[in-house]
Amino acid sequence: MGLTTAQQVARQAMTEQISRLVHGIYVYASILVVLMWTTPFAVDHPRVYWGCAACMVGGMAVRVALRLFGERWRGAFLETMMLTAVGLTSAPSGLLYLCSLLYYGFEDWTFTVLMIWTVGGASGSMVSFAPTLRLLVLHVTLLLVPALGMGLWQGGTKGTTFAIGTMVLLVFLLTQGVWLNRAYMKQLEDRATEEARLRELELAKAAAEAANVAKSLFLANMSHEIRTPMHGVMGMAQVVLAGELPAESRENVEAIHGASETLLRVLNEILDFSKVEAGKVELERAPFALRRVLEKLRLTVRPLAAMKGLRLEWTVEDAVPERAIGDGVRLRQILMNLLGNAVKFTTAGAVGLRVEAVPGALRFTVTDSGIGIPADKQQLIFEAFAQADGTVSRRFGGTGLGLAISAKLVELMGGRLAVRSELGQGSEFAFALCLPESAEEPVAVPERAAARERTGLRLLLAEDNAVSQRVAVALLGKRGHHVTVVENGLAAIAAWEGGEFDALLMDNQMPEMGGLDAVQEIRAREARGNRRRTPAVMLTASAMLGDRERFLEGGVDGYLAKPFHADELYAALAKVTAPPGCATQ
């Protein structure tokens, strides 16, 4: 136990002792009254009686002073005052007991009254003085030792018996007092230790919460700072690839674009794991087209397998329902992670998926004939940033987050991701989920994203990054749109006031005024001036959990996280500018 805790225990014991000293006032006052009313002591020996009474009243006054001011006193002065309080009450009590024996003898009522009170007071003191052993010793000694000495002095059968009994009582009280004091101090120490532990836990919790907030802010800032230049790289690569290029140049630019796509996947995995780890992933429980999800997944994986010369073995049993209830998006993410790993770690043979109906659930099994996993590493691979060994990451790349994310998502959906593998013999990852069959068609949310894309739109682009400006103007110019570029939200508001635009394309983080603030100000001016609502699409590197909902609730009509593909930009623009009910045929 550290010094601070020891001081805390000592102070708490002292405070408790002061409180208990005050309660003794009633005991001493009562014995003085009883002695006066029921015995002749005060009449027979007034000087002794009133002298003792004066000392006891002084001791009671000191006890009251301790109660009132003891919290302010420290060190030797406080201890002296406590010893004085006990001495001024215990010594007169012991003197009265001694005098009753001397004046009246063993068989008188006065002696009996004082003996009952003295023995009772001495016994009760074990509890009263449990916090301070020194006071217990002083109190019991002053009460009993004078009478003990008188018994020995008088001698005889009665005197000797009385002395022996008093001595046995004295030893018993001191022994029990020591035990009670140790038990009391141990209780205080345990309580202080527990309080210290609770304070440490609270501090640790506060530090963890602060660290979590700091981590979220760091991830948000880093995500934004990485996505912005990445958008420039990917966007300019798309612009260049859309034009005429020599074969060698096209191959080089495609390599640049592919590398940036890989970097984006790494960033998205880190952010996705951050959401799962923080428990901020909310699963849907809605009807979805299960077989359609599986078919789209097959069409995605097939070319990846074909590029490596792998067979794709795909089996969906007839008992698997057409529609199910659950989170189709997260199911696709889990399977895509597993199948992507299967393709990545397999150089020859086949990869596959088998979906079968088992009692009460659907079982999904992803297999490959790849490098396999040693038995002692099969649990390690589900930990964040971990792979079977260091050579794997050097040969195949990856963050080591895909399986960790998949395992967490499967667990959130009520299942468990299991692996069976032998080194050099391939791997099998399997999980079962309760996905009840749905009799309802998945709800199709009517969107204008399917509308015919219009050309020649007048667009206002608010973007402070020069490269992002070039990317947007180039991509939009290829579709015949006319783009007015400004560098912040205030300039966007001024431009909107001075002209008519078919849509607003807004970055969020800009100097002077951000995109969301600018859109909200435009919405307010539209309401005041009864102007036509100008659709707004947020083109931003803010891609953390909740950002999309925040922007849509703030008044924008569409959201694209940088970096985005040209087709995504065109689709988002078509969605917000198409007249209601206009759809592609």
Draw up the topology in text.
Elements: H1 3-38, H2 41-44, H3 46-69, H4 75-104, H5 109-128, H6 133-154, H7 156-241, H8 247-277, E1 286-288, H9 290-307, E2 311-316, E3 324-326, H10 328-344, E4 350-358, E5 361-368, H11 390-396, H12 402-412, E6 418-421, E7 427-433, E8 458-462, H13 466-477, E9 482-486, H14 489-498, E10 503-506, H15 515-529, E11 536-540, H16 547-553, E12 558-561, H17 566-577
Parallel strand pairs: 2-4, 8-9, 8-10, 10-11, 11-12
Antiparallel strand pairs: 1-3, 4-5, 5-7, 6-7
Summarize the structure.
By secondary structure, the protein is of the alpha/beta class. The chain has helices at 3-38, 41-44, 46-69, 75-104, 109-128, 133-154, 156-241, 247-277, 290-307, 328-344, 390-396, 402-412, 466-477, 489-498, 515-529, 547-553, 566-577; strands at 286-288, 311-316, 324-326, 350-358, 361-368, 418-421, 427-433, 458-462, 482-486, 503-506, 536-540, 558-561.
Architecture overview:
The protein is an alpha/beta fold. Helix content is 62%, strand content 11%. It contains 17 helices and 12 strands. It has helices at residues 3-38, 41-44, 46-69, 75-104, 109-128, 133-154, 156-241, 247-277, 290-307, 328-344, 390-396, 402-412, 466-477, 489-498, 515-529, 547-553, 566-577; strands at 286-288, 311-316, 324-326, 350-358, 361-368, 418-421, 427-433, 458-462, 482-486, 503-506, 536-540, 558-561. The strands form 3 sheets. A 5-stranded mixed sheet has the order 2-4-5-7-6, with helices on one face. A 5-stranded parallel sheet has the order 9-8-10-11-12, sandwiched between helices. Strands 1-3 form a two-stranded antiparallel ribbon. α4 packs parallel to α6, α8 (247-277) packs across α12 and α10 (328-344) runs antiparallel to α12 (402-412). The chain starts with a helix and ends in an 8-residue tail after the last helix.
